[in-house]
Amino acid sequence: MSEVVTRATQDQVAIVTVDSPPVNALSAAVRRGILENVNAAVADPAVQAIVLVCAGRTFIAGADITEFGKPPQPPALNDVIAALENSPKPTIAAIHGTALGGGLEVALGCHFRVAVKEAKLGLPEVKLGLLPGAGGTQRLPRAVGPELAVQMIVGGSPIGAAEALKHGLVEEVVENLVAGAVAFAKKVLAEKRPLRRLRDDDSKLAAAKADRSIFTNAVAAMTKKARGLEAPFACADAIGAAIDLPFEEGLKKEREGFMKLVVSDQSKAQRYAFFAEREAAKVDGVPDGTKPRPVSRVAIIGAGTMGGGIAMSFANAGIPVTLIETGEEQLKRGLGIMQKNWEATAARGGLPPDAPAKRMALITGLVGLENVKDADLIIEAVFETMAVKKEVFTAVDAHAKPGAVLASNTSYLSIDEIAATTKRPQDVLGMHFFSPANVMKLCEIVRGAKTAPDALLTAVSIAKKIAKVPVVVGVCDGFVGNRMLAARSKQSEKLLFEGALPQQVDAVVTKFGMPMGPFAMGDLAGLDIGWRSRKDRGIKSEIADALCEAGRFGQKTGKGYYKYEQGSRAPMPDPEVETLINDTLAKLGLKRRDITDEEILERMVYPMINEGARILEEKIAARPSDIDVVWLYGYGWPIYRGGPMHYADSVGLKHIAERLSAYAKATNDPSLEPAPLLARLAAEGKTFASLTQPSKAAA
Ligand code: T1G
């Protein structure tokens, strides 16, 4: 019999328990074990009902994603579900933790479901570029109605036990998992309740069959933000089949949709991203047994845009914050913005009405750096100059308690230089958040030359606690993300000098899937910042300089590389910019040439990949997938392309190296020559992925 699934009978109820850590995923062994034990329970005259439950921290969290792309092993999941659904004895799923994907589909195959109040139930397959492939698109609409089914399947977010009870997805919320499920089974037997096979129950589909707009409106709302993604639309089609077709035909449609997506490049990229995010939190070079330091209070220095957003992230996670500013006025302004942000979210229904007050209550605003004294973690988010950083860290070093972790939110500056101003460089590191810090998920954890392993683990674990995705990076100018972005910005500027227009470059980059192109981004950030720093450093960028000399600082002045209508952030191409570019190039004696979209895309992406290779050579990033996680969660890289390094492997490193060499010669820019690592892998016909042990996401 199975090692991962066991069965015991209690009071005529067979309790079939899955125990396959870490998340009871539906591996072949688990599928076999469930099938064997359910069949045995059905055949056992001493058994009158069957409860399916899981040991460990969660109910089944889905199919085993590591099995995708490999030859399928029997039994098929649909056969396991059919055994539960066709059982002549009541089958009850007892849910705790997260019943997700194939796990919820197994539960939907049972006649009844009970859950503990903390449980979450969902079909997140769309987040892996898939659709529920074991009846979820056919049974969930029958359980909760098409509207909620569309939200859950096309959106991919789970619902809680209370909402599941409200919508009939579970029959009961129980206090004690197993005892509650057995008691429920006894009730079903005592009341001779008919066995509810969802496949036979179209009652909740009737309204949508009569008025299809119930379904199409829900789909339209959920696919608004699905730009470039295939899976959300495939999910919607499969749910549509549940409304239009008999169950078995709908199941067939679902299967066809699943089989198409599971081999798609998009799903491969999204499965890769799933595991890449989890790998990124595993820090190399930390001795086994190293524990993070306890963090119960955080101090944040600076209540500006970044400091305020960071403080909100901690309060959102229930961690008290001391917010420190140089004066009452700055403090008041910072606290005011945080309150407004929370109230706006609550007004949109994104937070319970009492949450803003509760979270503000976790923030203590104080003036004076001495107030860092009680904090376990101190994050500095002040003006981005080394002089100011050093001044702040010197003071923090004097007041902070022993063992406190001192973090800088710098986006570029050297953590080692900052750490050297303290007597405790082992406690200093970088925690680089991204704006808006209460929204963006990425946190680059910058490891200094002297940063202690437990300080590093403290930053990684606290970042996860505040729902950030931590990636450990080394010290260099711009760390991973901004360093690669600089390589792209350099090319975007050069393309203007060679003949491209801002709107052409941005259109190529957004068509590729990025949320915004380099020139619209420049206008958002403000062109005057770069202009002032160029002037400080005595360097020129004739086109950008000319724009600024003409007062075109971007959105803040209503015009930059684009023009903006009053109150609108929508960039509109401006013929004045083309004239300005032509005049500037004429002065420089430069001629414009036609540049293809293909060349623009290659010169936007390949130099970044090349810089990524250098970052790996210098061990600034531990693995290529870490670089991808930085771009996925910090810079809006399209999830269905997996990240720059994964994308490079899908294009082929040989082609990329050849194109880079060609551009290096054509534009006389030696920095475009392929980095040694890229050149070597290309020559050996290898991939970036080959640099780390086979990833869990099978190709
Ligand atoms: N398959 C294989 N491994 C998995 C896994 C899965 N489904 N889920 C988690 N793991 C591994 C993960 O890689 C990590 O490994 C460890 O478990 C702990 O995970 C037919 C097609 C359940 C909410 O999309 O969302 O069903 O790094 O660090 O933060 O229709 O894991 O320790 O070696 O994330 O507590 C649908 C995916 C699959 C859910 C727990 N299911 N998992 O979060 O732990 S497709 C999902 C999660 C499907 C059917 C279809 C989360 C979690 P390691 P963790 P966590």
UniProtKB/TrEMBL annotation:
Signal peptide: none annotated. Its EC number is 4.2.1.17. It catalyses: a (3S)-3-hydroxyacyl-CoA + NAD(+) = a 3-oxoacyl-CoA + NADH + H(+). One of its GO terms (biological process) is fatty acid beta-oxidation. It comes from the Bacteria. Residues 298-474 form the 3-hydroxyacyl-CoA dehydrogenase NAD binding domain. Pathway: Lipid metabolism; fatty acid beta-oxidation. It is found in: Peroxisome. PROSITE patterns: ENOYL_COA_HYDRATASE (PS00166). Keywords: Fatty acid metabolism, Isomerase, Lipid degradation, Lipid metabolism, Lyase, Multifunctional enzyme, NAD, Oxidoreductase, Peroxisome. GO terms for molecular function: (3S)-3-hydroxyacyl-CoA dehydrogenase (NAD+) activity; enoyl-CoA hydratase activity; isomerase activity; NAD+ binding. Residues 478-564, 600-686 form the 3-hydroxyacyl-CoA dehydrogenase C-terminal domain. In the N-terminal section; belongs to the enoyl-CoA hydratase/isomerase family. Monomer. This is 3-hydroxyacyl-CoA dehydrogenase NAD-binding domain-containing protein. It comes from Rhodopseudomonas palustris (strain ATCC BAA-98 / CGA009). The gene is pimF.
